[in-house]
Amino acid sequence: MDKNKRTLSLIIVDDHQLSRDGIKALLTDIEFCTDIQVAGSGREALEKFRNKVFDLALVDINMPEMSGIELAQEIRRLYPDTRVIALSMYDDPMYISRMIDAGASGYILKNINLEELLEAIKKVAEGGFYLSDDIRKVVNERALPADEVVPPVKSKVINLSFREQQILNLIAKEFTNQEIARQLFISERTVETHRKNLFIKTRQKTLVGLIKYAIENQLLT
Question: Other CB atoms closer than 10 Å to residue 173's CB: what's the count?
């Protein structure tokens, strides 16, 4: 979340009323979540966006008529300032890849606790990228079949230095520049330089794109 912005508006999109109302109830007493709305379908969510552009959307993947993947694509196309977090029961690698490809900045499972849910919301609202612990394990185990998404990058096309590889791995684990600097005993300026090099080498412009590229091309170790 922006340091100058103390409040957050969000919409919870899930075709199961118990699920969306339960999440809303959990967040109601959270101080920075001042405007929480719910929608039972992607189309209902887009109707609500016409009256108000939300800061964040928690989107279920498996919904009738319009899937969470399709909704994420529409939100990112029509309202690029809105951040999207996938909310799912599935830890299937292809769902993860498709949601990230659709523009989601986070992927969490419905069985997470309130503490991790708040961590995900804050991280994504601040412009970061978040994967829940179970999803991170899938990614770290290279479970995403890159050849089913995009062709793997040949080693001669992109060559990461040892330090760049270290930093890429830590970025994928949601480490901040400060945390990476502390972990590797280097300055934040050095971390930022390596981050810029990673974006240049992978030809990506966003953090989401960088993570997706790293996953699809098995660059994480």
Answer: 15
Q: CATH topology of 8-140 equal to that of 146-216?
A: no
* pLDDT one-digit tens code per residue, 53-77: 999 999 999 888 899 999 999 998 9
Q: What is the mean pLDDT of residues 199-212?
A: 82
**Tokens for 26?**
């959990």
Please state, in angstroms and rounded to a whole number, the distance separating the CA atoms of residues 165 and 163: 5
E strands in 61-156: 83-88, 106-109, 130-131
Q: Report which of 91, 60, 63, 57 is spatially closest to residue 76, judged by C-alpha positions.
A: 57
Q: Are 53 and 81 in contact (CB under 8 A)?
A: yes
Separation between Cα atoms, residue 108 and residue 58, nearest integer Å: 9
Q: Domain extents for the chain? A: 8-140, 146-216
Helix (H, G, I), strand (E, B) or coil at 43: helix
Tokens 């997470």 -> residue: 112
CATH 3.30.70.260 for domain 146-216, yes or no, is no
In the structure, what pLDDT confidence band is assigned to residue 157 with cuts at 50, 70 and 90?
Answer: low
CATH 3.40.50.2000 fits 8-140, yes or no: no
The values of phi and psi at residue 175, to 5°, are -75, 140
Instruction: Residue 163: name the closest of 124, 201, 116 by CA.
Output: 201
User: pTM of the full predicted structure?
Assistant: 0.66
